[in-house]
Design a protein that fits this description.
Oligomer: single chain
Strand order of the largest sheet: 4-5-6-7-8-9
Number of helices: 3
Radius of gyration: 15 Å
Strand content: 25-35%
Distance between the termini: 27 Å
Number of strands: 9
Mean pLDDT: 86
Shape: globular
Largest sheet: 6 strands, antiparallel, barrel
Length: 161
Amino acid sequence: MIRAPDAPLGGGDPTRRYALRAGGAALMPGLTRPEAEAAVGWLVDVPVADLSLALAEVTLPVLLSDGAGPHLLGADGALVLVLAAHPRLAGMHVAMGAPSPGHAVGAVRPLRDGGWVWMARAEVADDRRVAALDALDAVADAAALAAWADEWAGAIPTLGA
């Protein structure tokens, strides 16, 4: 665990000034100390090559999400919202990040103790966000999820690939 005084989420909450160091890089800047301590436990389950896909569950009581959730903090410090359980992929959920400038959209899976991981992710323009989410909802299996990731610009590899 390391200090991250310039964490994006730390601007509004002075307790969100921690990150984790892995392979010389700061991961998930914007964690509170208890969130960072919890993440140390589950992060060992994520292969080193996939650390950029890791997400930590964070508690943000001032943000309303109209039934969605939880809120996750990406390895890059970006906030991601779990929208709902995926309708066809058992154990997976549909998630979306704030625009920066594109929206991170994809499927996430919980690990344990507040840990999550992107299973497929694409950065999409705001005007393509709904289409990407609709296409993701239609995915029926792992092969179709990989095809979805390939189809959408900016896709990143799935865990373990």
